[in-house]
Structures are given as C-alpha cells and as structure tokens.
Write a structure and sequence with these properties.
By secondary structure, this protein is an alpha/beta fold. It has two domains: about 5-125, Rossmann fold (3-Layer(aba) Sandwich); about 130-230, Arc Repressor Mutant, subunit A, CATH 1.10.10.10. It has eight helices and twelve strands. Strands 2-1-3-4-5 form a five-stranded parallel beta sheet, with helices on both faces. The protein has a four-stranded antiparallel beta sheet with strand order 6-7-8-9, with no helix packed on it. It has a three-stranded antiparallel beta sheet with strand order 10-12-11. A hairpin with a 4-residue loop joins strand 7 and strand 8 (about 145-150). Helix 2 (about 35-45) runs parallel beside helix 3 and helix 6 (about 160-170) packs across helix 7 (about 180-185). The longest helix is centred in the middle third of the chain and has 22 residues, at about 105-130. The protein starts with a strand and ends in a 5-residue tail after the last strand.
Length: about 230
C-alpha cells in the first residue's frame, strides 16, 4: 500500500515539481492550494505525512497545523517554507510540527526527511501497540491518546515530542540517558534541536509530575551527561 502525503503549497510550479518527485518515489500525493482546503482534505482521508507551507491563501500554515493537531496528534507534519528565521522554526515546532525545511531546498535531503519521518512515525506507532500505558505514583500516561491521568482525571494533554521523549525515558527508567541518545531517538535526522531544547522538555515534565519542580523526585538532570527518570523512587 502506498503512503499517502497531503502536500499544501500554493506555488503551482513548485507544487508540480514536488508532486512529481514524490510520486517517482512511490508516494500517493494529494495537493491542496490553500489552508482551508488542507483542513478539509485532512479530515476526509488518512495521511502518513503532511507537507505544509506557511504563507498560504485563506489560512496560514501555522493555523492549519494547529487545526490538524486538534484532530490528530500522530500524523507527522513537515513545514516547507521560505520563512527561515529561528523564531519561525521554534513556532512551528511548538505548535506540533515534526520537522522544518526552508526553500530553496536540496531535493535529496528533502526526500530523505520525508522517508525518515514516515518510517519513524510508523515504528513509534507499532511499538506503542505493545506498550500503550505507563503508570507511576498517582499518574497514568496513555502513549496512544497522549493524555496524562491523575486519580482518573485528565491532568494534561502531551505533545507528540513529549510523548516520544517520555516513552524513551520510561523504557530506560533509572538509567542515565545521554543527550545524544535522546536527540537521535526522538528527533532523528533533524539537526537544529539542542540540549537546551531537551532541558525545556524536562522542565515541562517537572511541572506536570513533580510536587516540587525545584527539588525533583522523578526527573533528574545529570550535569554534562544527560537525564534520568526515576519513576519508582521513594
């Protein structure tokens, strides 16, 4: 079965070129030329990847991404845009994108990122079939729905990257996990995340799970090495 990609791009010649190259790689590509069409098409079918421009008619790519994430937390989103500042990238990642490439782009790198995004998401989904839920203390984490429960009440809805990082740490509970290992396993081919990015995720986890975030019981930073999740500490 072909992987289906929703390609959201309003520049006709670029749209045609991208479609041609993706179809030559064996993908089924559904084109959308504005933001409202993108949301309509996404709701009407299942996709393995969304490739999304930011500057679009009717609705910009940021709002398209937000709308998609309300409907679906799993399908990977790749921003492909001429907007290239660090702020643009950070904004895209904060609202739920998985990767960010700027125009003009290298075709070989683009096709590789598409391949890896689809492969990594499929592997993550398959792994979760065997490990949907993790619990510790008063918390229950559902890796399929991205929800954290406390005393049967939904405490917080996690982002996709938060779920991937938390799943990695839970699988290696009580071990020190290096920053390099986290970047490789959670962010994969993406080159822009830094250790500061991981620090921010750990700070979020402390807000969600720690009674006293400044004196953490579960999520520990090991200076110069990485992080340790100790879910069953007394």
């Amino acid at each position: 079965m072909k992987h289906r990609i929703l390609l959201v791009e309003d520049e006709e010649h670029l749209m045609e070129a991208i479609m041609l190259n993706l179809e030559m790689e064996g993908y089924e590509v559904i084109p959308a030329t504005d933001g409202l069409k993108a949301i309509k098409y996404f709701k009407s079918a299942k996709y393995d990847l969304v490739i999304l421009d930011i500057m679009l008619p009717e609705m910009d790519g940021y709002n398209v991404c937000k709308n998609i994430r309300i409907e679906n937390q799993h399908t990977p989103i790749l921003f492909l845009t001429s907007k290239n500042t660090t702020q643009d990238k950070v904004e895209g990642l904060k609202i739920g994108a998985d990767d960010f490439m700027t125009k003009p782009f290298d075709l070989e790198e683009f096709l590789l990122r598409v391949q890896l995004l689809i492969k990594r998401t499929k592997r993550f989904s398959n792994d979760n079939l065997q490990a949907d839920v993790f619990s510790f203390s008063d918390f229950v984490i559902n890796f399929q729905t991205y929800e954290v429960y406390k005393s049967d009440v939904v405490l917080v809805q996690l982002s996709k990257k938060e779920v991937q990082l938390l799943k990695l740490l839970s699988e290696r509970a009580n071990e020190v996990v290096s920053r390099d290992s986290i970047l490789e396993n959670v962010w994969g081919y993406e080159v822009y995340p830094t250790s500061r990015t991981i620090d921010n995720f750990i700070l979020n986890f402390r807000k969600y799970f720690e009674e006293n975030p400044k004196n953490p019981r579960y999520f520990h930073s090991i200076r110069g090495v990485g992080y340790r999740f100790s879910p069953f500490e007394n």
